[in-house]
């Protein structure tokens, strides 16, 4: 795994924690943009899609949001989609490839909180942008190996952690 690149990770983090993604709140336009970006990186690494819609495992936030959040989205369009991003690198051993190692992180954060500080965007570089870029970079590194690991590896980033592990539970 000598090809792990700090420069790649910095570049990924600069995008995921940028103001353009508005703190990646669940649900939000920024979260959708992050999901598309992560899926594009999984695709470029050569991972096999493992979602119900390509790399995406989709859910309707209105149906799975914690009860305390539901009223806030009562008038939102249906469905209000949120997505886990999931790819797999199939293992090389015929028997062991049927067992899986999961490498995960949540890619959401707190979003925008007007009036809470001088900068209302909670960019989430450490929570959990750093974990998300680690998942992406590990996917690249393992996919680039000449000999694949014997076991399959699932690389997954999940939504809704800031609301009580919703995306992890949905998976």
Describe this structure in words.
The chain is an alpha+beta fold. The protein is built from 6 helices and 7 strands; from the N terminus they run ααββααββββαβα. Strands 1, 2, 3, 4 and 7 form a 5-stranded mixed beta sheet that branches. Strands 5-6 form a two-stranded antiparallel ribbon. A hairpin with an 8-residue loop joins strand 5 and strand 6. It is globular and about 50 Å long.
Features:
alpha+beta; five-stranded mixed beta sheet; 20% strand; single chain; 171 residues; two-stranded antiparallel ribbon; 6 helices
What topology emerges from the helices and strands here?
Layout: H1 6-16, H2 29-45, E1 48-49, E2 56-60, H3 61-64, H4 67-70, E3 81-89, E4 100-106, E5 111-112, E6 121-122, H5 125-143, E7 152-158, H6 166-170
Parallel strand pairs: 4-7
Antiparallel strand pairs: 1-3, 2-3, 3-7, 5-6
Helix pairs in contact: 1-5, 2-5
């Amino acid at each position: 795994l000598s090809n792990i690149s700090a420069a790649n990770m910095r570049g990924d983090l600069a995008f995921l924690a940028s103001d353009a993604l508005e703190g990646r709140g669940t649900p939000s336009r920024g979260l959708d943009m992050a999901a598309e970006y992560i899926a594009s990186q999984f695709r470029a690494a050569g991972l096999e899609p493992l979602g119900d819609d390509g790399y995406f495992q989709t859910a309707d936030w209105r149906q799975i949001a914690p009860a305390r959040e539901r009223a806030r989205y009562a008038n939102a369009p249906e469905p209000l989609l949120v997505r886990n991003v999931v790819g797999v690198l199939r293992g090389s051993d015929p028997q062991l490839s049927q067992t899986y190692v999961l490498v995960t992180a949540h890619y959401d954060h707190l979003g925008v909180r007007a009036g809470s500080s001088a900068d209302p965007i909670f960019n989430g570089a450490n929570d959990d942008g750093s974990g998300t870029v680690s998942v992406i970079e590990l996917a690249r590194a393992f996919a680039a190996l000449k000999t694949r690991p014997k076991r399959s590896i699932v690389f997954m980033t999940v939504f809704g952690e800031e609301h009580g592990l919703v995306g992890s539970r949905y998976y």
